[in-house]
Amino acid sequence: MPLAVLALAVGAFGIGTTEFVVTGLLPEVAGEFGVSIPTAGLIATWYALGVLVGAPVLAIAGARVSRKRLLMLMMVLFTLGNAIAALAPSFGVLLAGRVIAALAHGVFFGVGSMVAATLVRPERRASAIALMFTGLTLANVLGVPAGTLLGQRVSWRLTFALVAVIGVVALVGLAALVPAGTGDGPGVGGRPGTAGGVRRELVALRDPQVLLAMAITVLGFGGVFAAITYVAPMMTDAAGYAESSVTWLLVLFGVGLVAGNLVGGRLADRALMPLLYGSLAALALTLAAFTVTAHDRLAAAVTLTLVGAFGFATVAPLQKRILDHAAQAPTLASAMNIGAFNLGNAIAAWLGGLVLSAGGGPATPNAVGAAMALAALGLAVLAAGLERRRPARAAVAADGPRQPAAR
């Protein structure tokens, strides 16, 4: 695998760390600025909003910029945002730094997927995308626990400062290792800098397959976060773990993410849609089972790991599917699919909160997740059905209407 993909993975590691590490640092942030824990939680909420806004806006703004330069600009923005957060003199400045860092999130992963795919042979594209996303999954196993421990023992500012350093390392790697012009020619990357680039990006969103892939992302990965958002009360109240064990349980979840991502990427290169069917079906069944296994310590830990594995096995296939169906103008579609992950997270967290507020037990959000994953599976079947009919319609159009037989 080209070393340029490793540079992309380093950037993904930094982004994954800064996105998720804040949940363990809220008490420290709240204590320093004299705000409540819910108010401190805005540093997570505003980050998610920054991703949702930044993905389409910066993708359109960067439609005429070369892919390598756009990736480097996003890493500069990410590094700047984390540096501002590390030095923030007030809570408002901290929020601003978080939003600035978040703006780069969607475009980096979207364009990074395109670049990774064009660096390898067509039959290895899903594997290359998965390798880039390995940085994100390793962030959950290594970056988040280490950053949380550092922030709690020393200073939360030092955590953000080190993430900014990771951003600089990724920036240097991108500059040195990504060949000039990667992703800028015809094919997966399209051809930025030509007339009508922005218009083509917008037109690509009209493809039903692109929209369906985004919807599958929202529902499928939303199913994962219906469970993970409320994993702390689930593991303590239902499974009986101590609060101090939740961090290590999340490491197990991260191990599942890494395994599912790598296996999913490899299998998607051979049979993308069957892999997507199997992963979503397994995710729905696992989440349904989690409503029961959450009440047993060992079973809960195993199920949590499987949720991560089956959930992240869908990421590379869905991202590749977006690239395949928006091949001539993939920047906006690819970036917005990353935003779709965050949208799914927000919807799942809201729905999970509703069932808990209605009196459901600590494991009931898993049932919400199972329903979302099942709906995603239904959309995947629909997408495949529409795709099978498209060649038939194209053949009829090419042949023209049948003429009546001569008598």
TrEMBL record:
Compartment(s): Cell membrane
Membrane topology: Multi-pass membrane protein
CDD domains reported in the protein's UniProt record: MFS_NepI_like
This protein's UniProt keywords: Cell membrane, Membrane, Transmembrane, Transmembrane helix
Pfam families, per database record: MFS_1 (PF07690)
Positions of transmembrane segments: 44-63, 70-93, 99-120, 127-146, 158-178, 210-233, 245-263, 275-292, 298-318, 339-361, 367-386
Lineage: superkingdom: Bacteria
Main localization, broad class: membrane
Annotated ranges, domain Major facilitator superfamily (MFS) profile: 4-390
InterPro entries: MFS, MFS_dom, MFS_Efflux_Transporters, MFS_trans_sf
PANTHER family per UniProt: CHLORAMPHENICOL EFFLUX PUMP RV0191, PURINE EFFLUX PUMP PBUE
The name this protein goes by in its record: MFS transporter
